[in-house]
Amino acid sequence: MPLSPPLRRFVQHWGEMGTRWGVNRTVAQIHALLYVAPHPLTADEIQTTLRIARSNVSTSLRELQGWGIIRVSRDLGDRKDRFESMRDVWEMFRVIAEERKRREVDPTLAVLRESVAELRRMPSEREATRRLGDLLDLMETVEAAYQEMRTTSAAEIRTLLKLRGSLRRLLRLGLRRSASA
Question: How is domain 5-85 classified at the CATH fold level?
Answer without folding.
Answer: Arc Repressor Mutant, subunit A (1.10.10)
